[in-house]
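User: I'm curious whether this sequence folds into something compact or stays loose and floppy. Could you predict its structure so I can see for myself?
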Amino acid sequence: MIFKDVTVDLRSETKPFKHFFRATGYANADYTYTPPVKRMYDCLASYQGYPLYMRLHNILSLHGKGDYYITREGLDYGNPVINGSGQVDIVVSLDEDGKPVFNWEPVDAVYDIIIGHGMHPIMEAVYMPGCIARSDTEYYLPKTFALWEAVTEAFVKHWINRYGIDEVREWYFEICNEPEQYPLWNEDPSSFFALYDYFEHAIHRIDTRLKVGGPAVKQWEDGQRLYKAFLRHCHDGSNYRTGEYGTRLDFISVHSKGGHPDLVGPSMDYLFNPLREFAAVLGEFPDFAGIEFFNDESDIVWEGNMGISHKSWLNFRNTHYAPGFIGKMIHQYCLILQDELNLNLSIVDSDNCHLPWEKSFFSGNRSQFTPLGPAPCTDFIKKPMFNIFPLLGKLGDERYTGKNNDPEFGTKYGVLATRKEEACYSFLLWNFEDGLSDDVNDRTIRLRLENLDASACYDVLHYRIDGSTSNAYAAWSRMGKPYPLTLEQTALIREKEELELYDAPSCFSGRDSYNAEVHLPLHAVSLLLLVRRSEPAAAGSERAIANAPVLAAEKGVLGNTQVFIRWNFSERPDLAGYYIYRGLGTDDPGVCINKDKPLQCSYCVDMDVSGGQSLSYSVSVVYADGTESGRSPEGVISL
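Assistant: Here's the prediction. I'll summarize afterward.
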């Protein structure tokens, strides 16, 4: 067995730890208002540290038909034509005088859902509305840049009128998506620069506190070349809109991923080496020092629409390998981009919410969820990948540097140590090397924490994602991968889809140090949470959830009746989970239906119900010290 020692001095200097990983996305904004994706949003918004930013393509060119083109015509990106002739977008049209006219209904349908779930858009200026495109061959350019400016201005003003200036100031406005894909801009990027100049001018003329940037290029040679030219243009090039030198740039975005199905399997070096190159170029422009830096497509590999039917090794997206990769990746962003390269890292978007691409059960596409029935399906299972994000959400907002002189620390295993104020410490422990085999290089991390408050009592919670814990795919595999599933099999898989405690909660007091031995198989990730115990309130004396849960009844894929339950999550740092109480009608106090396993997210499915019943549901919070809050108000539903 391999032992690795890591020491964290809790009185040592800390660094701010921004939760830059609170971002995700998917390909087509038209998917947003479809029933499966709306339910996905309910699930995504169910935990501390949920995604704060959502990045989608084609908000300017919505067709208003939801998932029609993927489900009926098999077009993964959701459009019959992404660009060029035959576009079917319905947001922008031109009147008889050639002036733009707008249909805001599909745009509002998308952004109302995002903002209604407490998230903010990263607004991509892609793709060009068909009616203002220059031609069938130059479909990525406007007829005139003045028309492009007018359309941009109209969109931004509409959003401010609908959502308010304070909300829109939280957004990011990003020019294009991977502009190097257009050959013209590789040969002569001047028209791309003009597109940005008019875009930036239109937005900042409305409000100077709005945030505009780009260029969202890929990690390869063409993207690197356009990236450098774009920075040079913004730094001191001739502004095509104002005639002055330079164009304001509020953030810089790139796309770098850990592999490609046709080139190389998952590799941290493949992801981070291009980021080092992007950083080196940025260093050539000292005036941009401290600018916000994004990798807003930071996936494990490219081509999320490919699954196991294309390449069998893409099955890693179904397993604990994916959360293990992401856990290590987040720590490496701290060690490489923040500590080594001194970048102002603001957004790392794992871009893994492509639920419409996951067309069958565990098909291995880039999605945190897999449908129980044929797509489109509103009843789905959380993959292990989902669970890394509630785990990351438990990290604090200050970061420690662990003491360890081993050259493998940070590359083959690691401890990301954080705190939230003085009351809560959280430690992400991971054991991860490139390569898909799991049965080698187990490691035991011996974690020593020094300079705790010896007068305090600390509760300890240990969460885990590995080959058997917090792992719905492993549960299905142990059954022999049956499909279709029975109700009993579905229920067993649901029991393992949640983030799980690895050990029973414990506590200690009267000590200024703490030692933990955590054995990690390869590709496993754990989180240790130490919460300083305060004076406990009498059990059940206060309500932690103020509102009644929201309930929805629906037939499952096997024809069974089930109830979807969601409620507002608790922000308490000592949250250990939720108990769900179900009663028969409003006069029945009900019984707890998950007493043996508190839920970690404020979303669940109750399959143990029958039609014809009137049911009531309420929720309580379980704290790290084992006490339980009072129950929420009841929600009632008739089946």
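Summary: The chain has 13 helices and 30 strands. The longest strand covers residues 575-584.
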